[in-house]
Design a protein that fits this description.
This protein has 272 residues and is an alpha/beta fold. Helix content is 42%, strand content 15%.
Length: 272
């Protein structure tokens, strides 16, 4: 992953659960705001909406970073590549910049789906490959199973959940993390620490949360349909949290508030 790509990917606009005009309108505002990285998935059922919206922005393809994810139902050898080709048609592109496996297989035997992901890369359907919702052990196994570099493991990551094990695995394996549920679906705003810290920097609670994630070395995905919130989420590169404030926020990770687990996704692994 080159430096230019890394900088673009640091702040990505997530599109779940948007569909139809809501999705297209939000992408238009995100593009106006400055976003160039956009995240979708087969499972979101909005790839065609994303493709239409991105085409309408008029932004050159080389300036966009488009991520999509293959859903588990398509991990079969007979469906995997054809599903990716359909995603490309829906997105109106010849390739995606990042192709992820949305979840580990239900039996947690990851090698065959990783090999299919690598084949998609060899066929130039994607510039980069990655995974999502992998455990630390899966990350370690994955780098031994395939030769193509894995550019990210997209996971739930926010200040109310301790992900130290995954962060250590990221350092060990060279697979960077990227976040979803970056503000814990609003749960973080119940904690006054973020407002108090933000007041000292002239920033909002959300900006403090997102800046903390970036300073942990994790790229962020955020979604909003409101122009003001989109701008706020994007404008997080002009300040740096002190080590004291980082440590204060770190302490909140022991809340261990997890949003996405077996309660929502029965085939989810036992997370670290």
């Amino acid at each position: 992953m080159n430096i230019c790509f890394q900088k673009t990917y640091q702040r990505s606009f997530g599109t779940y659960p948007l569909q139809g005009s809501a999705c297209r309108d939000a992408i238009a505002i995100a593009a106006e705001t400055g976003y160039r990285a956009f995240d979708t998935a087969q499972m979101y059922r909005n790839e065609a909406d994303c493709g239409a919206a991105l085409k309408e922005t008029g932004i050159a393809r080389n300036d966009l970073c488009i991520t999509t994810k293959v859903e588990n139902d398509n991990f079969d050898e007979g469906r995997f590549l054809s599903s990716v080709e359909q995603s490309l048609r829906d997105l109106r592109v010849d390739y995606v910049d990042v192709l992820l496996l949305h979840w580990p297989p239900a039996d947690f035997q990851i090698e065959s789906s990783l090999k299919l992901l690598e084949e998609a890369h060899k066929r130039e359907l994607t510039r980069n490959i990655g995974v999502s919702n992998y455990t630390a052990r899966m990350m370690r196994d994955a780098v031994r199973m395939i030769e193509t570099p894995i550019v990210t493991n997209q996971v739930e990551f926010h200040p109310l959940l301790n992900q130290d094990i995954l962060l250590a695995a990221a350092t060990e394996t060279g697979i960077p993390l990227s976040s979803y549920c970056s503000v814990a679906r609003g749960e973080v705003f119940k904690y006054p620490e973020f407002r108090e810290i933000g007041a000292r920097y002239g920033k909002s609670a959300a900006q403090v949360v997102l800046r903390w994630i970036l300073q942990k070395g994790v790229s962020i995905n955020t979604m909003s349909t409101r122009r003001e919130n989109l701008r706020t989420n994007f404008d997080i590169m002009d300040f740096t949290l002190s080590s004291i404030d980082m440590a204060r926020i770190d302490a909140l990770t022991h809340t261990n508030y997890r949003i996405v687990g077996k309660n929502l996704v029965p085939w989810a692994p036992d997370f670290d």
